[in-house]
Amino acid sequence: MSVDVRDLAERPVIIGGGIAGLMTALHLAPEPVLLLSRSALGADASSTWAQGGLAASLGEDDEPALHLADTLAAGDGLCDVEAARRIVYAAPAAMEDLARLGVRFDRKPAGALRLGLEAAHSRRRIVHAGGDGSGREVMRALVAAVRLTPTVEVVEGIEARRLAVEDGRITGVLANCSTGPVFLATGRVVLATGGIGGLFHDTTNPLGSCGQGLALAARAGAVLADLEFIQFHPTALDGPGRPMPLISEAVRGEGAVIVDETGRRILDGLPGAELAPRDIVARAVWRHLANGHRVFLDVRDKPGATFAQQFPTIASACGKAGIDPARGLIPIRPAQHYHMGGVAVNLAGRTSVPGLWACGEVASTGLHGANRLASNSLTEAVVCARWVAESLTGTPARRTKPAIASDCPSPDPTTVRPLLSRALGVLRDGEALKAAARTLLPLAERKDAASDPAAVGLMIAIAALLRHENRGAHFRTDFPHHAAVARRSQITLDAAIAVARELASSPTLESVP
What we know:
Blueprint: E1 13-15, H1 19-28, E2 33-37, H2 46-49, E3 54-55, H3 64-74, H4 81-100, E4 115-116, E5 126-127, H5 134-147, E6 152-156, E7 159-166, E8 169-177, E9 180-185, E10 189-191, H6 212-219, E11 224-225, E12 230-237, H7 249-253, E13 257-260, H8 278-290, E14 295-298, H9 307-310, H10 312-320, E15 330-339, E16 342-344, E17 356-358, E18 363-364, H11 376-393, H12 417-423, H13 430-445, H14 451-466, E19 490-491, H15 493-505
Parallel strand pairs: 1-2, 1-10, 2-6, 10-17, 16-18
Antiparallel strand pairs: 3-5, 4-5, 7-8, 8-9, 11-16, 11-19, 12-15, 13-14, 14-15
Helix pairs in contact: 1-5, 1-11, 3-4, 4-11, 6-14, 12-13, 13-14, 13-15, 14-15
């Protein structure tokens, strides 16, 4: 047991060192802020791994209204239209902010931005940096900017384990570091912890990203939204390594095609073909694999000889797997890639718990709806970080009292990973979801390393069970139709536990309220 004796002087605390956390910290300057990172900045952030880039309407043939239309179409009727409008209209200025911070965007010889095309975009509007290393380049610039900002204190090697709440308000962060447990007394906390890839066997995300921010918010009593919507990227490099190397959608934007072992294009006849929305392509690939075929990405014709130059990160991953894309096919399969759901927030990033904000993948603004439009995620993080910072600055600091910090085990998803991979994959059904919920319930109620991953998995499973339809990335084989009315979902941990207990006591229960 220990007490943190350091006086935070009412500073806000940002949990997470990816793009969302770093941008929020920079926008808060010159207000002092404490930023917590589990490891060295950028070392295990999903942001660093991002290949595709950032979507913004910067082309001469483009405008925010077209970007908005594409976003709403991909979201399959579930986007918050006003949230989407505000974010995509703010995107071009956000790219200028990044350039001023030193991000080296890819440009044509004359200096204009080199814009890429990705699935479900009607225009070339993907801003890249370093070819397929966009996330790495953005993180390089932001980490450098944060290191040079004296009002941002970075604490690395520290992991938030619980949020303290009194009278319904945030009063601090309980964390573990190399010297043991600490308590950080603060009335303002920003979650910027990333996604849930570590909950799945097949994922393109760091395995350490296992929904920690969702667990922190849920155990503090926050409302979460749209948890059932998990995006599976259709083109992950199919091999033994985990996490799986991503093969960016930009490769298909440059003309690559998806074929099976016979050389037949498996998406022939599908509207949009290789550039159809991700959920549609992922299901087509998944079903073809389930029917006993192998599936590949063929880049030999397009992009062809320029592949390695355009996509050096992907070319390197292929080389390590013994594949020469110039001569052979790249084996692929769908893998968990992004979580559209998250902590329910407004556009200022405020959650349902006073004193708690969320930004980036851990948050659910309503931009993505049921199926994220490619490269909208980094854009959302950059745009919303400014609004979160403005909201924090406009919220009076509240002095809170230090408290005793107790040790809490670091989350370990190993136990729940096989279960969630089976029940919450590309295709789902009610019986598997019910079985998962019954198994996850006792794990979530324990106080060990599996409890937080199990709690997150339980909330996702219950949200998926309650959605009796096919919409976007959520596909129920027992309800393969659209509901007449699109509705966003909301859930709390207490509500999920209540439903799971009802299921546990009624094994034949056909539906739940």
